[in-house]
Amino acid sequence: MSARQPLGPYGPLLGFVLLLAALFGIAYAAGAAAGPAAPGIHRSPGGSGSGGSGGGMGGMSGMDGMHDMGAPGPRAVRR
Q1: Given CA atoms 9, 11, 14, 20 in this order, what sign does their dihedral have?
Q2: Which of 39, 52, 73, 76 is the most buried (most CB within 10 A)?
Q3: Burial 9-29 (b: 16+ CB within 10 A, else e)
Q4: Where is the composition biased (Gly residues) (predicted)?
């Protein structure tokens, strides 16, 4: 029988990198299969999706009626 040659210092590193790549691939596939995080979330046409114009609601189409979402009013104290 011949003695098995060790892979050297790069063997465990290569194994770790391959395992990490496999885990990222599985996570990406699962995320792609699951779809968007919530109903109605999709990319807006014609935009890069990287930020708004700096004011207002930005590029958040479909968020009509959200202008009245401030802090809740004072509660009535019953004694």
Answers
A1: negative
A2: 52
A3: eeeeeeeeeeeeeeeeeeeee
A4: 46-62
Longest dimension (CA), the chain: 90
Q: Confirm whether pTM is higher than 0.85.
A: no
pLDDT at 52: 46
CA 10 – CA 6 distance, rounded (Å): 10
> Quick one: tokens of 34?
């699951």
Q: What is the structure's pLDDT at 16?
A: 95
Angle at 45 between CA 42 and CA 51, to 5 degrees: 75
Within 13 Å of residue 7, how many CA atoms lie on the same side as its CB?
Answer: 6
Q: Which residue has the tokens 């194994």?
A: 15
DSSP 7: -
